[in-house]
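Here is one chain, start to finish.
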Amino acid sequence: MSIHEPAFNDAEPVATRPDLEVAPFARLTIGEGSFDVGTVKAGQPEAEREDGREVLAFRETGDGAWKVLEHNVDEGWRQVGAEVLRNTSDALHDYVGMHMIRRSGAFEPGNMVSLTLFGFEWDLRFSRDGSRAQVRMPDTNWSEVDRTLMTQFEDKRELAIASLLRFSPSIHKVFEDDVEAWSRRLAAGAQVMPIMG
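Its structure:
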């Protein structure tokens, strides 16, 4: 993979609709996640689509809040599954966690670790007692990682990911196309079972 300038998608996040009426017809399982997928019932504004295709929605199995999907099974379950993944997990966080490489150093107190993500490089260093950390993004000076982030991510590898996302807020634009392609690859392993009833 290479770093490239993607076509930006600044669309609003998918809205959750607890009152949306949906007829569930399939259970989609991707890894540990399980989701109900159904057709949005006619007579609701969300059920109308310019191209005439039926509108689908999903929810985590057992959760009452439905989210409308842009994709349809006519495009294949892989597209539907990829959209569900992008809307139910922090796909960028998961992508970074799977693909970042430690170039040098150790995730231990008193050390500095240098990381790369397909050519995007950053560093994280820890105080001797591990209670503080600083991050350095490309072409910037060291910045203190706030204590809230330190508390939230005791795992130093997770802290490195969170620091990248916090201190490089436009990183999602750099890797947007790669994250989308990655979610489609993960969705290729989805299992779809009918919901009877």
